[in-house]
Amino acid sequence: MLEPEDRPTRRGPNPPSAGPDPCGELLVRTAAGDTRAFEELFRSQGSVLLAVILRIVRSRALAEEVLQDVFAEVWEDCTRFESSRGSGRAWLVTISRRRAIDRVRSVSAQRVRDTAHGERQLHETAPDVQHEALENIESARAARAVKGLPEEQARAIALAYYRGMTHVEIADHLGVPLGTVKTRIRDGMRRLRSSLGVTDAR
Hints:
Blueprint (H helix, E strand, L loop, with lengths): L21 H10 L3 H23 L2 H18 L10 H60 L3 H11 L5 H8 L3 H19 L6
Helix pairs in contact: 1-2, 2-3, 2-4, 3-4, 4-7, 5-7, 6-7
C-alpha cells in the first residue's frame, strides 16, 4: 500500500488551448491586402453582424447602410485587429455595435434639428399666413358690400378697383361723363365705408 507521500499527485485538466479562429485568419489575410479573404469575411459574417446592428437601429434599410460602413472600416483598419485580445468575430461585433449606436445618435440628432427648423419656419411664416388670411376675409367682406351697392356705383367701383381702370377709361367704357363716374365712385365708397364700419379720417 502506498504511503500518502508516495501517492501520485492528481493533476487537473489541461487548460483548453485556443481553437482555430477562421474569422481572425480572414482578418489577417485581409490586412495583407487579400481581397478574396475580405469577400469571404463578408459572406461568412455579414448576416451575423446585420442581426447585431438591426437589434440596435430597428430599421432594415438603416442596418444595411451601417453594415456597409462596418466593412468599409474593416477594410481600412483591419490591421488594428489583435488576435491576442479576442476573436475576429468579437472584434467585428464591437465595431458593428459602435457604428450602430453612432448612427442612432446621428439620426436622433438630425430629427431634433429638423423639428427645430420646422418650428422656426412655422413661427416665421405664421404672421404672413395670418396677415394673408385677414386680407382674404376683408376682401370677401368688401366684395359682399360692393354687391349691396346700387348697380351703377358697384359697376364703377369694380372697374376702378378690380380691373384697375382710370376714371377717364371708365367714363369711355360706360359712355357717361367723367364727372358722373367720379360721383358714382365717391358715393359708392361712402356707402362701402359705412357698411364695413370704416370711419373717415378727419
